[in-house]
Amino acid sequence: MAKVTIDRRSFNALMGSSEVRAVLKAPAQRVESAARSGAPVDSGAYRDSIGVEDSKTSIGWAREHVVARAPHSHIVESRTGNLARALGSAGG
Hints:
Blueprint: H1 8-15, H2 18-38, H3 45-48, E1 50-56, E2 62-68, H4 73-80, H5 82-89
């Protein structure tokens, strides 16, 4: 049996790279699109506040978040589950 040793520093650098971010961006954008399409619309503030934000973990790995930033987003999400449904429909 072969032994594989992973250099953590190199692996962490890879996981924080622009190439990994690009791989994560497309699925996040699909979730964003599904969330906007399924969003309930009263004033449109909730729907218009949905977007993709990028960040890094504490050890530098790239990550993407689909968020709703309207002040009442937590209420809309608790009543409709829109973001959760969007994640499910986009294969997340």
